[in-house]
Write a structure and sequence with these properties.
The protein is mostly helical. Helices cover 53% and strands 2% of the residues. The protein contains twelve helices and two strands.
Length: 258
């Protein structure tokens, strides 16, 4: 499969209201450019280390047969679109009732600050991103956190009856997302979250989540996962499953040396 990490250097000028109780601080172009460069560098390292990780976990895997990661920037397709054209195409298919029903919007409408039209329209931009990726790059699956459900659905609505995306939400045991806004973020950048802290984060995984996370975040054989889960059930005080999860994810993100 072709992985397509999307860098929101256009939507980053607005900010996603999902998971926020207040409006995001607007970023100037210099800060946005630094953020984009940092994200691109993190993506390159992550997928390079992921390829190394996969080659040690999947028998007979030839890394040269893998499709190269295709990093895209949504500013590339927004630069040529004017306001009237966007409203005449994307806006024509948007329904205010559905937009107001999004949790990210409803929660903000209940606050004294409310929500600006800028952030209210963010879901249309993310919907168009998915539409564009679907039609121009054959992207059929969109992965996102549970807080992104409304934005993902907006994209499938825009695509209409064509095959859409099945999101893969990732939530903490409390039902909240992993992210900066939720206060439980982990970073790919080792200067923000060290390999030690990555390990500690995953070794604290709840018993109810550890089997699911081993299947989601590692390339271990299902038989190996089943064995360690059974071992953990017999002696939960040893945290065997959590330690395996932590070791695998740390190597995936930071490599063997990490």
């Amino acid at each position: 499969h072709q992985a397509i990490p999307l860098v929101g250097n256009a939507t980053g000028t607005i900010g996603d209201p999902s998971g926020r109780s207040t409006e995001r601080v607007a970023l100037d172009q210099d800060v946005l450019a630094r953020n984009v460069a940092g994200i691109e560098a993190q993506l390159e390292r992550f997928f390079a280390r992921g390829t190394e990780y996969a080659s040690t976990r999947i028998a007979d895997l030839d890394p040269s047969t893998l499709q190269p990661v295709r990093v895209l920037h949504n500013a590339d397709w927004y630069r040529g679109i004017g306001v009237l054209e966007f409203l005449g195409t994307v806006g024509r298919h948007a329904r205010i009732g559905a937009m107001l029903a999004r949790d990210s919007v409803k929660s903000r409408l209940q606050t004294p600050q409310g929500i600006s039209f800028t952030e209210f329209s963010y879901q249309l931009l993310q919907a168009y991103d998915f539409w564009y990726l679907y039609h121009h790059h054959g992207c059929r699956i969109q992965l996102g956190g549970s807080d992104q459900w409304g934005n993902i659905i907006a994209g499938t609505d825009l695509i209409h009856r064509l095959p859409g995306a099945q999101p893969l939400p990732m939530a903490s045991p409390s039902g909240e997302k992993f992210g900066k806004s939720a206060g439980n973020a982990i970073w790919l950048d080792e200067t923000r979250t060290s390999p030690f802290d990555i390990y500690q984060f995953f070794v604290k995984t709840a018993d109810s989540d550890v089997e699911r996370f081993l299947k989601m975040f590692t390339l271990l054989p299902l038989s190996r996962i089943a064995r360690v889960v059974e071992e953990h059930r017999d002696a939960p005080e040893n945290f065997a499953a959590q330690k395996l999860l932590a070791a695998e994810t740390t190597e995936l993100i930071h490599g063997k040396e990490g």
